[in-house]
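Troubleshooting: if your tokenizer reports a length mismatch, compare against these two reference records.
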Amino acid sequence: MKRLKASYGCPVELALDFVGGKWKTVILARLKEEPHRYAELRARIGGISDKVLTERLKDLERLELVEKRSAADASIVYHLTDRGESLRPVLEALYRWGDHAAGALPVTVRRG
């Protein structure tokens, strides 16, 4: 993960350092739905490699957006932190925008 800069030109620039890139946002969107184990995330996010998923989860942990917790069966489950939860309205807005845009474009969007 790149280090955060000491100074930003605007708040959007800082926000994009946190969630910029395709995979971080997709991971956060999946965790917004509910906590997931690694294998569940891997199955729900098509096209991401194990290496990239592992790296992005570590990035999101360092940024204190995601945390690992032990489940009752001793497995590890990824959850949004309070900081991650604060992105919920942003993620929901991106979902709505993408859903609306998909209706006007020659694309298919998998749901679920």
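Reference record two:
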Amino acid sequence: MLDKAVGVLRATAEGPCGLAELCDRTGLPRATAHRLAVGLEVHGLLHRAADGRWHPGPTLGELAGGHPDPLLEAASAVLPRLRDITGESVQLYRRDGTHRICIAVAEPPSGLRDTVPVGARLPMTAGSGAKVLAAWADPATQRIVLGDATFSDRVLVDVRRRGWAQSVAERESGVSSVSAPVRDSAGQVVAAVSVSGPVDRIGRRPGVRWAADLLAAAEALQHRL
């Protein structure tokens, strides 16, 4: 699989390519080429432009030059402020295929918390963060996720319309959360920022309470990117 992933990277180094071109250059089946390209995109090794074609991504330069991940740098400044405003646990998720990975957290110093460790790999079938990442995922990924999800395609339409998602006891019993998309400088959704905590404290409509602050935090992250 590593050889195939390297082949995908080399193919995009020859010039931007969509899925059909990627299959032609690598000889890989469409499903395999798509899965690898999306996975490489999640980690910043590829970047998909507005025309849908993949290019070599920023992480390649970071690895070569030793530069830190700009999203994590932005998170270190923004997430603690959001935690202090809400008094609740804050997480930042990146999509990895049909899963989401927690890449940064900010936890309140005391009290009952919804602790998600950095590096946790969660399915994209439940939770507000999953809805946000699925709502702006490519159609093929959406179809796979919706096959097992607790939410429907109509829910994703609503998420895109209002710009945030909420959940109550979906991922974990007794936990509510609200999430918003984080975009890069090109306007592409690259992550989901979330606030989560006990239902008894946050309530069953967490979006009403925290959506405005969450959207402001997402905008601050985008500004830093």
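Descriptive notes for reference record two:
- The longest helix spans residues 206-224.
- The chain has a mean pLDDT of 86.
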